């Protein structure tokens, strides 16, 4: 498992493109028949991917965690961005279609991931945070995630937000997770932008054509930087950073957070005219 340390705003000021990408972009978490995690020191968040194409994949612990099993002291949220899949959590079987989300709480022992069809495998995006309390394992379809449509065609940010794990949805210790789908013709996410110094965040872009890219904005609002991001790549957003993007086409992305609270609306808005 790759470990990513934290960077301060002062360090980020000095970074060139390569350093920004090495610290904040996750280019290769989705690999056929593998589970891959990156461990971020921001809120000890683990960001991973798993594609069980021809084999069933089990979630295992890592030496860096010094735990007997992955969720001994952690919780996990799993969203499927691929074909029909199945998750077995401590003997309970969950069918999980595209954009379905399974939450598994602290002390869930065995989790295995598989696909219904190896030619159209499930693609599981995984987010895990430390947990100090057990919450029940729960599945949400995207319809259960109370979709809310915001933005407009005029400002190229017309999009639907699905909230799965948060204070008014699936209960968790600290994990917050959901996804946003941009309507055709809309390209801007999270504009107007915001920060929430109380929570770090990770974005995973998907349903972006292979020959298109998202220009992801990061940094303090008055000192922004950018990352060019391809389909099925993820970005780590420090708590002090904006996280917003503009695509060369429309796309979707999964957002996930950990930190002080699970209140999705706890955001410090940034005026568009204040961005530098
Ligand atoms: O803290 C919340 C996250 O940044 C996202 O939910 C924002 C988002 O999906 C959007 O505006 O499109
Ligand atoms: Zn945010």
TrEMBL record:
Species whose genome carries this gene: Dyadobacter arcticus
Could you tell me what this protein is called? Answer: 4-deoxy-L-threo-5-hexosulose-uronate ketol-isomerase
Protein keywords: Isomerase, Metal-binding, Zinc
Mention one GO molecular function: 4-deoxy-L-threo-5-hexosulose-uronate ketol-isomerase activity
Alphabetized InterPro entries for the sequence: KduI, KduI/IolB_isomerase, KduI_N, RmlC-like_jellyroll, RmlC_Cupin_sf
Q: Which NCBIfam families match?
A: PRK00924.1 (NF002091)
* Documented EC number(s): 5.3.1.17
> Lineage from the top down?
Bacteria, Pseudomonadati, Bacteroidota, Cytophagia, Cytophagales
**Source organism, top-level taxon:** Bacteria
User: A Pfam family matched by this chain, by name?
Assistant: KduI
Q: Which HAMAP family match?
A: KduI (MF_00687)
| SUPFAM superfamilies in the cross-refs | RmlC-like cupins
Which function does this protein serve?
Answer: Catalyzes the isomerization of 5-dehydro-4-deoxy-D-glucuronate to 3-deoxy-D-glycero-2,5-hexodiulosonate.
> Could you say which protein family the record assigns here?
Belongs to the KduI family.
Reaction(s) catalyzed by this protein? 5-dehydro-4-deoxy-D-glucuronate = 3-deoxy-D-glycero-2,5-hexodiulosonate
The pathway is: Glycan metabolism; pectin degradation; 2-dehydro-3-deoxy-D-gluconate from pectin: step 4/5
Its needed co-factors are: Zn(2+)
The protein's matches in CDD domains, at most eight in alphabetical order, are given as:
cupin_KduI_C, cupin_KduI_N
Q: What does the cofactor section's free text say about binding?
A: Binds 1 zinc ion per subunit.
Per UniProt, Zn(2+) binds at 194, 196, 201, 243
